[in-house]
Amino acid sequence: MKELARNTNDPTREVLRQATQNVPEFVQVNLPTSFNMKRQIQRARYGNDRPVEPRNLADLEIPDAMRLLNEHHGNELFLKYDSGQEAGNNR
């Protein structure tokens, strides 16, 4: 499941469906909840590449990779302009 998550751009729910569709019923009852498996997929995709949660607005920094919408939206910019950390709390 984690390898599939890293190697595809399919939505999380689709990765979960593909990973569990051929699992026998006696195994399915022992699997984690779908919420927890979705979290595992998201962690496998993003790992430690996610930015740390800012303590205040001045600490907010949005990485370039997160400024784009996904390929289903034509990879257009999600964030058109970021005034940067120099703006402090005036962002």
Structural features, described:
It is a single chain. The chain is mainly α. It folds into two domains: 1-50, no CATH class; 54-91, no CATH class. The chain is 34% helix and 0% strand. It has four helices and no strands. The mean pLDDT is 79.
What is the element layout, followed by pairings?
Blueprint: H1 2-6, H2 12-20, H3 25-28, H4 34-46
Helix pairs in contact: 2-4
Radius of gyration: 18 Å
Shape: elongated
Distance between the termini: 39 Å
DSSP strand content: under 5%
Total E-strand runs: 0
Output the number of helix runs.
Answer: 4
Low-confidence stretches: none
| Major sheet attributes | none
| Portion of residues within helices | 25-40%
The helix/strand order is: HHHH
Concise synopsis of the structure shown:
This protein has 91 residues and is an all-alpha fold.
Features:
single chain, 91 residues, mainly alpha, 2 domains, 34% helix, elongated
